[in-house]
Amino acid sequence: MTNQNLLAIAKEHGSPVYVYDAEKIESQYKRLTGAFNKVKNLRINYAVKALSNLAVLQLIHGFGAGMDTVSIQEVRLALAAGIDPSKIMFTPNGVSLDELEAVAKMGVQINIDNLSILEQFGTKHPKTPVCVRINPHVMAGGNTNISVGHIDSKFGISIHQIPHLLRIVKNTGMNINGIHMHTGSDILDIDVFLHAAEILFDTAKDFKDLEFLDFGSGFKVPYKEGDIETNIEELGEKLSKRFNAFEKNYGKPLTLVFEPGKFLVSEAGKFLVQVNVIKQTTSTVFAQVDSGFNHLIRPMFYGSRHEITNISNPKGRERFYSVVGYICETDTFATNRRIAEIAEGDILAFSNSGAYCFSMASNYNSRYRPAEVLFLDGKAHLIRERETFDDLIKNQIPLKEKVKA
């Protein structure tokens, strides 16, 4: 997508607006599958939570991907996108037995990450295939909120509890067809990932009827020019060799599964905002835009960095700006960032806005959630309309009687 494409989209659909580049999503998918082309059976399950628009799910499924879901609502979204239940994985955390059973009835592969629910489900449904999520106790991830494999994590069954897990499987006679792990997001050190993989392989030896091993995801993507990222090609070479050796020793075909979300869609996304006000204080020049952390919470939540470009004046002289939103709280997107000179009315583009941006958006301050646009085959396709006041009050029920003072 060019700046002219983005400016045309902002003009037609208004701001703020999320824009996704289908070509970039496809190239990331091909990069990942290419890195593991020496594995005979590879399955990519896109992590729906990253960006759950139906059109995006259809696009990624068209490349050959299945879906990784974390709620029954995400399962229903995947089904609504036309995806076969057999291509959907359900990897929840802390959900009720009722929700797990409801998803299992849909024909979706379920993944259980605690002993209590595993025993209850196995007792009632011993013939239903179940994947088990283990916690390898490997600390990985770029932020404590997205590091999920450490010893105090709420995710997964501890490797130290494997004897308990095996006892439950034996007593219930349940069918364990997969083993899963996910250590965290923004993983840079391939050796850490490979260490966790060895733990997964070692655990898998205790299960004789496996069909797949799911290694999660968490690959780091670049957030600025020259930024470090996960070396997918090196990981592919090393893990493929190890997986193929394990498969041979295991004695039956296995599928290697990944569940990338951010890796596929983060770099494909641009978030476009308009500058409402340039405000100068004693020490700071603020560019105040028509959005806030209600639409892009990641900088405030994770401390994440999003490159910001003035696409209305890309060749202008660079100056220092703090880019802030219109929410009635501190909502700073960037502090003292060098950006081409900004004037009121200019359109700014936030990079890496494909993952966990719209999906984490809210109506805080009673603001509408923005439109979404997919740039596909050289054309801009509206894939979600901007909310209206009717959407805001749709499910609200006003009092029928006048409140007495």
TrEMBL record:
Which E.C. number(s) belong to this protein?
4.1.1.20
Q: In which pathway does it act?
A: Amino-acid biosynthesis; L-lysine biosynthesis via DAP pathway; L-lysine from DL-2,6-diaminopimelate: step 1/1
Coiled-coil regions listed in the entry: none
Q: Which CDD domains match?
A: PLPDE_III_DapDC
Where do the annotations place pyridoxal 5'-phosphate binding? 218, 356
Q: Which residues form the Orn/DAP/Arg decarboxylase 2 C-terminal domain?
A: 18-354
InterPro entries in the record, alphabetically? Ala_racemase/Decarboxylase_C, DAP_deCOOHase_LysA, De-COase2_C, De-COase2_N, De-COase2_pyr-phos_BS, Orn/DAP/Arg_de-COase, PLP-binding_barrel
Domain Orn/DAP/Arg decarboxylase 2 N-terminal residues, every copy: 24-266
- Asked if the Swiss-Prot or TrEMBL record annotates the protein with the keyword Amino-acid biosynthesis, the reply is yes
N6-(pyridoxal phosphate)lysine modification sites?
Answer: 49
The family database entries (HAMAP family) matched by this protein are listed as: LysA
Quote the subunit structure annotation.
Homodimer.
Homology family? Belongs to the Orn/Lys/Arg decarboxylase class-II family. LysA subfamily.
Q: What does this protein do?
A: Specifically catalyzes the decarboxylation of meso-diaminopimelate (meso-DAP) to L-lysine.
What name is this protein filed under?
Diaminopimelate decarboxylase
